[in-house]
């Protein structure tokens, strides 16, 4: 792949093998050096420090003892469950903490991936081979544990159910408490038993706070004029690799590429260019774009765009629906990428 120049994402049709997927199960580059020490807990939200303390203990293999007074014997805290589930809004540092667990736990075999990466791996290798691959693993980190269809619910519930008895520790993040997964998205009642069985494996840790990405950003996503956009891509492609695509064309192209391959779709890019951004009114297209944004954010690739502001790309009725938290997280990330 050229180290510099202009490319079009609609011309890319990446292929990813099962081996490639497994090799990619590590924290995103921006979290290569994430540690508990570099997680800055907001003193305005004590649950952040409390979560950090619990996760440090979890990474060391046990729960912390309760602090006693000078003449009191400290009580031993109850043993933690095999999994920890970080529940909180977007932008409170959940992925940072998840990566910190991954780096801190002295495990021989450990994996870190998004929910969609694990389900895609099952699709590529088959369920039984995936179980065999992970059996004996010390740690599985699952980022953004959000269930978009009943099939994913069953796959992940079965996988967790087979791994926990063999000693695998689990760490997951989500914007939704485990007992509420699936609410507002599909007929959750039909899968309530499976969802609750999955939840019983996790110690739920609530993390409150405000979106750190918005603390340093004033206003909305940056929108460029056509001339400013052209200049930005000219400058970016002179020193690296930039993509230039019509927004509607990219949205159509995403439908032809499995979300597990989006990371390869943007591989090697230093800047993403989107012309003619417009509001999305199709739920499936919007969710694919969310997955695309997640991969771009993981890779910390700046976005330059014309048309509508990317913070207004999701129709109001979408923001009022069951995927509201996904869309709001994507908006938060898009705002940050257009300012980077």
From TrEMBL:
This is Cell division protein ZapE. The keyword Cell cycle applies. It comes from the Bacteria. Gene3D superfamilies: P-loop containing nucleotide triphosphate hydrolases. PANTHER family: AFG1-LIKE ATPASE, ATPASE N2B. Keywords: ATP-binding, Cell cycle, Cell division, Nucleotide-binding. It comes from Microbacterium lacticum. GO terms for cellular component: cytoplasm. The keyword Heme does not apply. One of its GO terms (molecular function) is ATP binding. One of its GO terms (biological process) is cell division. InterPro entries: ATPase_AFG1-like, P-loop_NTPase.
